[in-house]
Amino acid sequence: MNLHDEAAKVLLGNWRGHNTIPAPGLYPHQWSWDSAFIAIGLRHLSPLRAQRELESLFGAQWADGRVPHIVFDPSAPREGYFPGPDFWRSEQVNGPMHADTSGIVQPPVHALAAWEVFTADPETARRRGFLERLYPRLVSWHGYLRRSRDLGGRGLVSIVHPWESGMDNSPSWDVPLQRVEPVPAGEFRRRDLEHADASERPTDVDYGRYVRLAATYRDHGYADRLDVHEFAAEDPLTNALLAASEDALARIARELGESPQPHEEEVARLRDALSLLHADGLFHSFDVHGGSLIRGGSVAGLVPLVVPGLPQAQELVDTATGPRFRVDELGLAPSYDLTDPLFDPSRYWRGPAWFNITWLLQRGLTDHGANELARALRGGMLEAASRSGFREYVDPRTAEGRGAHHFSWTAAVVLDLLI
Ligand code: 2M8
Question: Could you say which of 85, 122, 191, 204 is the most buried, measured as most Cβ atoms within 10 Å of its Cβ?
Answer without folding.
Answer: 85
